[in-house]
Design brief:
Length: about 650
């Protein structure tokens, strides 16, 4: 059918107008998309930066808690050694006295021994010496002389422990014993937690001993730790503070506040900060608090984030904070750079659009005699534009048959110009599991983002499909998610991933009333490994443990690094007994591992519970139970699984 010049010109003008509208739409769309992406990236950057800083704060407090735990252990060990020295000295005196005495009666020797112990008790009143016979009768009490001669064999402390029986049984086996129990420090006093060292004296068939009270050790350690923290952090911008439950400052970045009552310190909103901290102490024991406060040595207001953790044994909480104004400059630099990049892109698109529009208008003003040339030039211009754009462009008719594809689309769909008018778009761009894929003729699959527009050209309906390759973007997002959920040292899932997996697993189990096992695992004496062999060896132990552990469990089971040398494990489709046997097998394999280092042997202690679908509790309750089992295992000598 022949088309008149007027018709051709009219149609061509329509094409030009349609193209301009498309470009306007593209221009507006790209600006809007850049703005949305800008907003999302800024939010993501702020959240990521803040999360990293929160992790630093949390790690700093956990490190201080680890130091306190280590120093308490060292203090207890030194106290036990001192007890042994005291009893050893008295033992030598008693043995020499027995050698030199002419008395042959056991009763006479026992009486003489009592006087010797009493003499040492008077010279060393800080240590409460005691003597008992092998039947549990008190020969000498360091706290209450009224119980001398009374049998304590069947006496329990306030936790129901037969501590005298334990002393007697242990000295029968080993000749000495270390026993912890509750006993008054003074006559008629409140029972306090105490550890005693005692030894069997064969010559008089009796046990002598003395002990140390943990309240005294804790007080000594508190003074030492508080002085150390105060000296280290004083004057620093980010400082660790310690405050008692009563609101009295134990340590502070401002030395003048130490010993002062902080219960009247308020934030900018008039809320008492100590009360907010105590809400966290009473609810979770640790957590973050955001509030507005004046910057240090300044009248400037700033939002502040603090992380605190309760130390209930000392009735204090320890914390550290940061001012958000300190990293606003970094965020502003990122914003300005991103804005400039976005403006450059918009200006480039605008210039391109203006130039293209000017060229199109110029063609319209030419004579009808130049229409064919005009068509050819415009066709070349359109092809040039489609070649330059980074997006794939495909034009299809009402039957979905491809009529045109630019170089980007040809590459992604693996088609050639010869395929135009033959291939349908349905087989090349498909929806697959909520993703849009460009499926090439030769097997190449690429994830794309697409949209389309309907156009009317030469009295026919067509559709223009625009799409771009987003596979690299998705891969980058997956990489970010992997980094956020993975422990960098051991390459296993981290605490964040554990909490997410647990919630997902619990949600599924609630509907099926099935169960799974969960274990809290702590490497034994890991602090000593770092101190004796160095942190590089400590890191190697953590990585090797994670690697060895994964070789023993199934693909359905997961090991997580919960923090420091502490790990969590979730076992599905396995009963409690089998899970315990598996953990013991892993522990045995770990203890036999060749570290290429003399005297290094690594074991772990684990708590194990079963989570049933018909009795789901919150995670904190299970963690508390696991922590109790783990503590029980540590108290019973480590290197074991407790359930």
């Amino acid at each position: 059918m022949r088309i008149s010049k007027v018709h051709i010109k009219s149609s061509w003008i329509k094409v030009i107008i349609t193209t301009i509208i498309i470009f306007i739409f593209l221009f507006v769309f790209l600006i809007f998309r850049e703005y949305i992406q800008f907003t999302q990236n800024i939010s993501f950057f702020e959240d990521k930066f803040l999360n990293e800083r929160e992790s630093v704060l949390q790690r700093e407090i956990y490190n201080r808690i680890d130091e306190i735990t280590y120093e308490l252990s060292a203090l207890e060990a030194n106290a036990i050694m001192e007890l042994k020295d005291k009893i050893g000295h008295i033992e030598n005196v008693l043995i020499n006295s027995v050698k030199n005495t002419q008395e042959k009666s056991i009763g006479q020797m026992s009486e003489n021994m009592v006087h010797i112990v009493l003499d040492h008790a008077h010279l060393d009143p800080e240590y409460l010496y005691f003597m008992i016979d092998m039947e549990g009768n008190v020969i000498l009490s360091g706290t209450d002389s009224n119980i001398n001669g009374i049998n304590l064999y069947d006496i329990k402390d306030k936790e129901g422990k037969f501590f005298i029986r334990e002393m007697i049984e242990d000295v029968k086996d080993d000749g000495e014993a270390i026993v912890s129990y509750y006993w008054p420090k003074v006559k008629d006093g409140e029972p306090l937690y105490k550890t005693s060292y005692c030894k069997y004296i064969n010559k008089i068939d009796a046990i002598i001993g003395t002990g140390v009270y943990f309240d005294d050790l804790n007080k000594l350690l508190q003074d030492r730790i508080f002085e150390k923290l105060q000296a280290y952090y004083e004057g620093k911008q980010d400082y660790v503070f310690v405050t008692g439950y009563d609101g009295v400052a134990r340590t502070s970045g401002n030395k003048e506040l130490v010993g002062k009552d902080l219960t009247q310190f308020k934030d900018v909103d008039g809320k008492i900060i100590h009360e907010k901290f105590m809400d966290i102490v009473n609810s979770t024991g640790e957590g973050f608090l955001t509030y507005t406060f004046f910057e240090r040595n300044s009248d400037m207001k700033s939002k502040k984030i603090s992380f605190i953790k309760s130390i209930p044994e000392w009735k204090v909480y320890i914390g550290i904070g940061l001012y958000l104004n300190d990293f606003n400059e970094s965020i502003e630099i990122f914003k300005n750079k991103y804005k400039n990049d976005m403006l450059k892109q918009i200006v480039t698109l605008l210039v391109f659009f203006v130039l293209l529009s000017g060229i199109l208008i110029y063609f319209i003003t030419n004579t009808i005699d130049m229409i064919k040339i005009h068509f050819k030039q415009e066709e070349m211009l359109y092809e040039k534009f489609s070649d330059l754009t980074l997006e794939g462009i495909v034009i299809i008719d009402i039957n979905n048959i491809i009529q045109f594809a630019n170089p980007v689309a040809k590459k992604l769909l693996q088609i050639a110009k010869e395929d135009f008018g033959k291939l349908k778009i349905d087989s090349l761009i498909v929806e697959d599991n909520e993703k849009t894929l460009a499926k090439g003729l030769y097997g190449l699959h690429t994830t794309i983002e697409k949209y389309d527009e309907q156009i009317f050209y030469m009295e026919k309906d067509y559709k223009v499909i625009f799409f771009k390759d987003i596979s690299e973007k998705l891969a980058y997002e997956e990489q970010l998610k992997f980094i956020a959920d993975t422990d960098q040292l051991t390459a296993i899932p981290n605490r964040r991933r554990f909490i997410n997996d647990y919630e997902a697993l619990v949600s599924a189990k609630k509907h099926h009333s099935t169960s799974f096992c969960m274990s809290m695992i702590d490497l034994d004496r890991f602090k000593a490994i770092n101190d004796l062999f160095g942190h590089n060896m400590g890191d190697n132990v953590l990585k090797t443990f994670a690697s060895e552990f994964k070789t023993h469990i199934s693909e359905d089971d997961t090991l997580y690094r919960y923090g420091g040398e502490e790990f969590m494990a979730i076992f599905v489709n396995i009963d409690m007994e089998s899970c315990k046997n598996l953990l013991n097998k892993i522990n045995e394999s770990l203890s036999n591992y060749d570290w290429k280092t003399e005297c290094l042997k690594v074991t772990f202690t684990a708590g194990l519970i079963e989570v049933k679908g018909d009795n789901i509790q919150n995670l904190d309750a299970y963690l508390k139970r696991l922590d109790e089992l783990l503590y029980q295992g540590k108290q019973n000598g480590r290197n074991q699984v407790v359930c």
